[in-house]
Amino acid sequence: xxxxxxxxxxxxxxxxxxxxxxxxxxxxxxxxxxxxxxxxxxxxxxxxxxxxxxxxxxxxxxxxxxxxxxxxxxxxxxxxxxxxxxxxxxxxxxxxxxxxxxxxxxxxxxxxxxxxxxxxxxxxxxxxxxxxxxxxxxxxxxxxxxxxxxxxxxxxxxxxxxxxxxxxxxxxxxxxxxxxxxxxxxxxxxxxxxxxxxxxxxxxxxxxxxxxxxxxxxxxxxxxxxxxxxx
Length: 231
Description:
This protein has 231 residues and is of the alpha/beta class. 44% of the residues lie in helices and 17% in strands. The strands form two sheets. The protein has a six-stranded parallel sheet. 35% of the residues are buried.
């Protein structure tokens, strides 16, 4: 089931603009950036960095078993406090992530805002990585992978289903839109990854941004808009 954080308050517009995070609004992958940050602070090992590098290679060619990988990663955070991770990620964002915002991504967000769109960040990352970017760009809604937190404010090591990846991302977006009386048939969605094909297939205006090879082929086959943002 989806977490209870879904706010079902109706929105004034039925025009949606949805944005992926890594490789789209940002010119980097935040998972790789964050594990290197943790390595410098003695919280991750060189082996952790190598594992993330391998997972990113699998991700780029659409072969990553994301739920399996996420489950393994989350075991490292089991028992950690949520508020401490949020603070750590805020510092990390300010020091290392903000400079990777793509100018054309920021401009596209502003263009849709001016046109009256409901803006949402839709990412497989967690709130702790995604919220600082959404706040920076003035994107009020974040659909992401949700982590289970116990009554003591600590992570249990479990991920709330569905994970916001692949079919799960499309499912979360559809439930979120429907809960507000919105329709993805009025949505634009910007992403760089073939893993987002399920959501691209159900929006009115799919946009491939700096697409990976498989997404580039899919976009061409479906006559989807393809844009190349400077990084």
